[in-house]
Design a protein that fits this description.
The chain has one domain. With 441 residues, it is an all-alpha fold. It has a two-stranded antiparallel sheet. α4 runs parallel beside α10. The chain is globular and about 70 Å long.
Length: 441
């Protein structure tokens, strides 16, 4: 009887250990929910940017005529709430922070191969369908005329009429190149055909993911004490070469610090200063965030010096960089400081992590790509058509027409995003995972 009891206890202990292991494996991905919630906040900021940039341009960009209060709101709120370059920088670093997590948690050949195989399908399938929809809309309808009319009514130079491909072959090449360009992302044909000309962002994020893939494979098999120095050296070299690599390397470093126990302890203990003084990590993060925010407000107050920080890049003094086009997106130092300060502060604060892990924020974060697609298509079709009708046919004031358009477009965007999420994005994820599993089997 005693032997049977011992056997039963042993089995129960083994079962409990197995269940705990499975629970840990199940809960591991959800430990990053706060990062998905941060992406949800960026979704709201990007939605505010595109709607305000289109219909209330004075509140977003300098150089457009408008009421005085809109200029004040732009100087106070725009630098941190609906600034395009800051939002894009957040997505680039946040993507680098999250795309490496599965491998760093389970550094195996199988996990690494699955990431490399699934990534092109995970990004390529939704973008291909989104571009096909955009090409069909702006080729076969009269939407382009409404866009031009709306830009004229608002005197908004930031509204560009999409230029769809002129043949199926050009359309195929435009779609194909979205996953192959490595520079001048905003000049690609697909971006010029995309409403709001923001398709360069997912194209850049996809391109930089391979920078992360190449670098992350080294980390689990080298000394953790050298990870920080190595990635900082890589970031400095990328900064010198005017590459987005320093953004990606920083995202990888933040992920490594969060997952590696030794580096995590260093983050918790703080940064050592002179004479044995310790600077808490949250103070260092707050300093970075403050410096970046100050720079954002300085450039807002003096927009003529917006690109002055380019002198920090030595490559501009080389012969092949003398004609650098400041109108193209480039990695900015002020955005970098705000993003890194915010994300480092998030890593240090469990309270902030709980706030960003709220169900609504995570829900929005999981639909970030779908909202990105929906907001551009709805704004440049329904939004502009409705604005032109209200302003011209109904003779409403510009403010009244813009307000009505905003009230109508926001729920339509979220509805369209939900449809795209369930019928395009989710099947694309499923297909990418199944294809990676099929190759392994």
């Amino acid at each position: 009887m005693a032997q049977n009891n011992r056997s039963l206890v042993s089995r129960l202990s083994s079962l409990r250990s197995s269940l705990q292991t499975r629970a840990t494996q199940t809960l591991a991905p959800t430990q990053q929910d706060y990062l998905t919630g941060l992406r949800g906040l960026l979704v709201l900021k990007s939605l505010a940017w595109i709607l305000l940039q289109t219909f209330v341009p004075t509140i977003v960009s300098p150089g457009t005529e408008g009421p005085f209060y809109q200029s004040i709101l732009r100087k106070v709120c725009s630098p941190l709430l609906w600034n395009q370059s800051l939002i894009c920088s957040f997505f680039v670093i946040l993507s680098a922070r999250t795309v490496c997590v599965p491998f760093l948690q389970e550094p195996s050949v199988t996990r690494y191969a699955a990431s490399l195989v699934a990534r092109p399908l995970r990004v390529g399938v939704p973008l291909t369908i989104a571009l096909i929809i955009a090409f069909a809309i702006f080729t076969n309808t009269g939407t382009a005329q409404k866009i031009s009319e709306t830009a004229s009514l608002l005197q908004n130079a930031h509204i560009a009429v999409p230029r769809p491909p002129q043949s199926p072959l050009v359309a195929f090449n435009a779609i194909f190149n979205t996953l192959w360009v490595v520079r001048d992302f905003s000049l690609q044909a697909a971006n010029q055909a995309w409403p709001s000309a923001t398709l360069w962002v997912p194209s850049l994020v996809y391109s930089q993911s391979y920078t992360v893939y190449i670098a992350m494979v080294i980390l689990p098999f080298t000394r953790p004490s050298w990870h920080i120095q190595g990635l900082l050296l890589f970031s400095a070299a990328s900064f010198w070469l005017e590459s987005w690599g320093w953004y990606s390397a920083t995202g990888l470093l933040l992920a490594d610090i969060s997952i590696n126990p030794q580096l995590r302890r260093k983050l918790t203990s703080g940064f050592g200063l002179i004479n044995g003084l310790i600077c808490p990590s949250w103070v260092f993060a707050l300093v970075l965030l403050t410096i970046g925010a100050v720079f954002k407000y300085i450039w807002t107050a003096f927009p003529q010096h917006l690109d002055a920080e380019l002198v920090l890049h030595p490559t501009l003094h080389l012969s092949d960089s003398l004609n650098f086009d400041v109108h193209q997106p480039y990695p900015r130092l002020d955005d970098y400081l705000v993003v890194v300060g915010t994300m480092l502060l998030l890593e240090c604060s469990t309270w902030l992590q709980r706030c960003f892990s709220a169900r609504l924020m995570v829900h929005l974060g999981k639909r970030s790509l779908s909202v990105f697609v929906a907001q551009s298509l709805v704004t440049y079709t329904l939004g502009m058509t409705l604005f032109a009708h209200l302003r011209v046919d109904q003779d409403l004031s510009e403010a009244a027409a813009a307000a009505i358009v905003l009230v109508i477009c926001i729920p339509v965007i979220f509805f369209a995003a939900e449809v795209f999420h369930w019928f395009v994005d989710m099947p694309g994820r499923w297909f990418a995972k199944r294809f990676a599993c099929w190759l392994r089997e």
